[in-house]
Amino acid sequence: MLLYALICLSLALVGIAGLQFTYLFYLDRVDRERKKLIHQLEAECRRLANRLAEAESRVAEQDMILNKLLNQSGDEVWADIIEER
To answer: Residue ranges of the domains in the chain?
Structure first.
């Protein structure tokens, strides 16, 4: 009878070890997916930072042009700009 109990106990322990290995493989896969997602998010962040820098430089350039136009004679410049469009 003790032999049957030991066999059942060993099979239960093998089942628990198998469950732990399955969970370990699952955690490894989740870790790889998260690393891949972080890499994609970092690349997107770099791309958006570049777009933001380009937009800021464009806004600064347009602001400089507007300041030049405002410093010149006001009504004549705006009339020329409206006629061009």
So the answer is: 2-84
